[in-house]
Amino acid sequence: MQSTTAVARSLSMSRFRFLHAADLHLDSPLTGLSKKSADFAARVDDASRRAFDALIELAIAEDCAFVLIAGDVFDGEWRHYSTGVYFASRMRQLAEHGIQVFLIFGNHDAENKFLARLDLSGNVRRFGARAPETMRIAALDVAIHGQSFAKREVLENLAANYPAPIPGAFNIGLLHTACSGREGHASYAPCSVEELRARGYDYWALGHIHQRELLCETPPILFPGNLQGRNPRETGPKGATLVTVEDGRISGLENRELDVLRFERRSLDASDLADMSALRAALKPLLADTAEDAAGRPVALRLAINGASRLHGELVTARQRLSEEIETQIAAEGHDIWLEKLTIETQPEKETKGLDAGLAGHLQRIIADIAATDFLKERLDERLAAIESRLPDAAHRAERLAEWRERLPGHAVTLAAALLEEGTETGDTFDTIGDARQALEPDEAG
Description:
The chain has helices at residues 4-11, 33-36, 38-43, 47-61, 82-95, 193-198, 276-293, 312-317, 319-333, 357-371, 374-388, 397-426, 429-440; strands spanning 15-21, 66-70, 100-104, 124-126, 133-137, 142-146, 170-176, 203-207, 213-216, 221-223, 239-246, 249-257, 262-269, 299-309, 337-348. By secondary structure, the protein is α/β, with parallel strands linked by helices. The chain folds into 3 domains: 4-257, 4-Layer Sandwich (Purple Acid Phosphatase, chain A, domain 2), CATH 3.60.21.10; 261-349, no CATH class; 355-446, no CATH class. Strands 4-3-2-1-11-12 form a 6-stranded mixed sheet, with helices on one face. A 6-stranded mixed sheet has the order 5-6-7-8-10-9. Helix 4 (47-61) packs parallel to helix 5 and helix 7 packs across helix 9 (319-333). The model is unreliable at 1-12 and 425-446 (pLDDT under 50). It holds the Pfam family Metallophos. GO terms for molecular function: hydrolase activity.
């Protein structure tokens, strides 16, 4: 028996709305937070569920006819069976309001052995993985075409076999894909925008890429991004797309923010700052803007200080103390911001400020000689290999390791130069350069 809402909706079928979401990753842990701040991690532990709750509430409030979920409902194997129970309960909530759900499973879902046994309410329609399928909503004259992933690594072009559009219907393609490829995402189910357009559908509901992106306006080919950022790479607003259709044409395409925690990256140019007091003053508007942009959400902030600055040496040698001072400033100003990481990316205002050119050159030669040794390269590779085994996201491993290999020698130069500059100011130059040599040279005893 149809609900009153569903009957009313069918009587006005020339106009309807639907929600397009993807990459829910329900109960996915927010990477690294628990190791850095247990208090902050506890506050946002259920972030993915609360963001999904917001999606359900939005679908009901906007009287949506249906919800599309373009893959990665789950984050691989469930850590707790309650994840499946929770999802089923929210599907039942939509059923009580006459809202249908159409979903495909993505690469992370394919790892979950419980999905085949997951019992869901009758309003949920799941696309199979063997071949593309078409599902109809007769009352709205809508045809939805989709196919799930059969395994984690789907390297063939699934879209190539999607059926032709049904004449006279509003045709939607539901696809989990990297499309033509995106940095940081595995190139699963590759395809091109041109071939998606050529299929002749009215809307393409894509998933897999965690950043919102409109690939084409006519017809809309869109990644809504994920509902909730999960790590410092997934910055900015997250949510879903609300689509309005009138007389068979799209009349509205709205991004709705649904995340409950926001990851942000900000940078501060220290080039013109005379002292640390000036730096704290410059931070004040940056922190205020960050909090305002989050619109009441807690923020995990990754802050970089850059520029050619007279404060370079002090910033490099006192990074931990500065981090604590910034955390104190945030608390004093009443912002709901957690300083997730502080990086110092400044350069000396002058390359040899306060240093004798001969000493500076001598220091650089020492570091260059050490960096060139096979022993140091082997030690660096050993350390990075150990780190690599603990990295959570395989798609980012190679680029991170390459970046570290390139940047670490430069960081050594920066730190040693700062220590040497301190030594010249205190009269301990030769002790400092000796300490720098000892710290940088490998221990031949192993």
